[in-house]
Amino acid sequence: MAQYFSLATCDVVGFDLDHTLCRYNLPESARLIYNSFAQFLVKERGYDKELLTLTSEDWDFCCKGLALDLEDGTFIKLADDGTVLRASHGTKMMTPEALAKAYGKKEWKHFVSDTDMPCCSGKCYFYDNYFDLPGALLCARVVDSLTKQNRGQKTFDFWKDVVAGIQHNFKMSAFKENCGLFFPEIKRNPGKYVYRCPESVRKWLRQLKNAGKIVVLITSSHSDYCKLLCNYILGHDFADFFDIVITNALKPGFFSHFPSQRPFHTLENDEEQEELTSLDKPGWYSQGNAAHLYELLKKMTGKPEPKVVYFGDSMHSDVFPARHYSNWETVLILEELRGEEDEKPEEAEPPEKRGKYEEPKVKPLNTLSNKWGSYFIDSVSRQGNAEDSLVYTWSSKRISTYSTIAIPSLEAIAELPLDYKFTRFSSNNSKTAGYYPLVHYGLGS
């Protein structure tokens, strides 16, 4: 494989929507997502009202790359070899002594070394995107509450209620029905929760099309929500930026399922209509599969093997399946690479418009967690060594294995020429070579 990657060599450029094309104001969206689920658990399932109250310190618990053991309520941070680096029961971090006693140097019991672990296996759940993270904090606090109420409860059965909360807030009809808290609030005030695309990104999207690239949007969001976001972030002419739009894509199944399992559907007034046995022309569709899409891309490009690159923020839903099942180039949007950069000041409300009472400030979810440490590396004590050793996390190993490159945002590359040569992740390069821009992120070398 070539050492460098260039957009100029790609025939098709695909994008995820949420946290990729559409960048969220993370402190505000995190609070909204948390409240959406907490209100459901308290009001509909009878959980403790304490779940509705948060302090600013509580948000430090949020860190991408954690796994939740659904049986015992333990959160796990894994090293690249599958051993446990840190763990907590609920929000209570385990001491190094307790960690050594519980896990030692063995692989975690749910670790699978030769493939991408399922996001939710029925035994564990992995938190790898910003929609997930407020749920991690909520689940940890649920474990705290149940442990306290039931005097050291060892096993838990709350996950079914969390899934019910997801269904209540995000089912296909929720946007139209104004169901739950999330969609009604986004509709009421989109500018509070999402940022408009900078003009540099709009120009870049046009540049891609003018260069003859086929531009595709593939999102698991439903058609109505997709239209709301795109209209706000890109403008009323947003449809002109794309040749093909696929909503309700149900990733990662879009990439992994056979065409017969996941056919495309036409849309009318945001409702799914006719089931399609193949995809014959560009347009706006729902559900579907990567195999039928690729057949259409062959026709549109006139090439037997058009080269596709896909931009997404989720390793589980975007990057791993696009690379593993479709062999596409993949660009991971990783806001952790933004570091401690402040949110855009021009988007913030002026002080005179804020109410006297302000909810506790939410730590931006893309910044370092004091409890969990770096998303990329961590230190472990090695027996006989006076100093701790730095090890890569399982999350950073997956990034370098399945991503072509990783960038903090589309804006970071929008003003580069299309033939710019990015150093790609590969076994021939350092483990950090594919991060752009390549600066010290606490990544090691």
| Radius of gyration computed on alpha carbons | 22 Å
Helix-strand makeup class: alpha/beta
Give a count of the beta strands, DSSP E runs of length 2 or more: 18
End-to-end Cα distance? 22 Å
Biggest sheet features: 9 strands, mixed
Strand ordering within the main sheet: 11-10-12-9-8-2-13-14-17
Strand content: 15-25%
**Annotation field: number of helices:** 13
What ranges have pLDDT less than 50 throughout 5 or more consecutive residues? 340-357
On the 0 to 100 scale, the average pLDDT is: 90
Shape: globular
Helix content: 25-40%
Question: What's a quick, concise take on this entry?
Answer:
This protein has 13 helices and 18 strands. With 445 residues, the protein is α/β, with parallel strands linked by helices.
Your description of this structure?
With 445 residues, this protein is α/β, with parallel strands linked by helices. 29% of the residues lie in helices and 17% in strands. It has 13 helices and 18 strands. It has helices at 26-45, 96-103, 133-149, 159-170, 174-177, 182-188, 190-193, 199-210, 223-234, 253-256, 290-301, 315-324, 394-402, and strands spanning 4-5, 12-15, 66-69, 74-78, 84-89, 92-93, 124-127, 214-218, 244-247, 264-268, 271-276, 284-287, 308-312, 329-333, 377-380, 389-392, 405-407, 422-423. The strands form four sheets. Strands 11-10-12-9-8-2-13-14-17 form a nine-stranded mixed beta sheet, with helices on both faces. The protein has a five-stranded antiparallel beta sheet with strand order 6-5-4-3-7, sandwiched between helices. α1 (26-45) packs parallel to α3 and α1 packs across α4. The longest helix is centred in the N-terminal third of the chain and has 20 residues, at 26-45. It starts with a strand and ends in a 22-residue tail after the last strand. Residues 340-357 have low confidence and may be disordered.
